[in-house]
Amino acid sequence: MRYTPHTEADLRRALEVIGVPDARALFADVPPDLLGPELDLPPAMDEVTLTEHVRELASRNRVPGRHFLGGGCQTHFRPAVVDALALQSKFVTSYTPYQPEVAQGILQAMFEFQSVMVELTGLDVSNASLYDGASAAAEAALLALRQTGRDLVAISEGVHPEYRQTVATYLEAVGARLVTLPLEGGLTPVNPVPEGLAALIVQNPNFLGSLEAMERLCAQTHARGGLFVAVVDPLSLAVLKAPGEYGADVAVGDGQTLGNAPNFGGPAYGFMVVREALLRQLPGRLSGATRDTQGRRAFVLTLQAREQHIRRAKAKSNICSNHQLMALQSLVQVCALGPAGLREAATVGALRAHQLADRLESLGLRVLSAPFFNEFAAQLPVPAAQLRRQLAERGLHAAVPVPESYRLGQAALFCCTELTRAEDLELLSSAVSELLPGEKRA
Hints:
Blueprint: H1 8-18, H2 47-59, E1 66-67, H3 80-86, H4 89-92, H5 104-121, E2 125-126, H6 133-148, E3 152-156, H7 161-173, E4 177-181, E5 199-204, H8 214-223, E6 227-232, E7 250-254, E8 270-274, E9 287-291, E10 297-301, H9 324-362, E11 366-367, E12 375-379, H10 384-393, E13 396-397, E14 400-401, E15 411-415, H11 422-435
Helix pairs in contact: 3-9, 5-9, 6-7, 9-11
């Protein structure tokens, strides 16, 4: 079956208009060794064999055992209603809802998601999602540059390393300056916030799990005339102070902890919520509520000078899509659990994490994060990668190695969620005790 409507005559005519002899000439600037390379592909499969092969690959995404992994991706309870609603064909196959008369369902879902994020963060306006938490942080940095007219962004070392790499890439492309504030005792120091900055970006809980002094950091940033960007775990906001309460200008993060399974690292989605004064600088799609010609409540894309859409030359970002399906999963999750359910999930995870920290300290390990929410760093007498591998052999998935750049020696992250049971803590602490050098056992 042909997948192009163009005939050979059409192609010849197009090449004549362009003024090249053949299609290959269009790629003359590409190095020859990159044109038509030999591909090491396996033999073709029939449909039955291919289906079995794909199912075998998919099965690798189901890792049995007990999970204590964090570092930016966690395993949380997902009620069955999340997939039952979010995976309906009307949502899975939907595209940009440019025509509101035929897209009221997806537009309302976007609007309700925005409403949830506004309530969780305590800020004024949310977009309908971004690609991931890292690009959301980078977009917040660009927003601050536009809003303040300055070219300096400061970012805490406590922000996830991958987020910091993404922010650096974005800012290098626009010629802006980036300063990283080293942690002191696992926390962002308050005093060294530089003068003349466009924004300070701080994560809470930070990458090591510690809770930052967000209110003081925010106040000092505003005293310097900059915007304060809070990178947050949305589930933690069920029990921690919301960014809007301590004066943050922008809240960003990854929505994976709300209704999105780890899925071998993705996909999830990023979010951005801002003060109303920053509305015109907000990238991404916005769904707004209005009235139709008959006075009925209706939804439309609003403030559309963005992306590939209206007045795209004046768009605030190069974003041309979003992760609405994953954001919808979060919306269903929040609606299914409600405020009390979210608080319970957050509280149980934090309780289990502190119980695990106590157990590991009783084995002679030193917990490096304090205070913390549901994840913490612990110093180890053995390489973290080694311990993680040995635990995995026992069906226990834990101990994400802390990068050497944090100057903590042999350290690892441990995370607990509402799915962590008391017996899981016993299994992990017993295994760690057996695997540690003899002098470190309780």
